[in-house]
Amino acid sequence: MPYYPNNVVTFKLGSKEKDVIRCISIKGYTIAKRETTYEKHQKEQEKPRRLW
Question: Using alpha carbons only, what angle is made at residue 44 by residues 30 and 19, rounded to the nearest 5 degrees?
Answer without folding.
Answer: 35
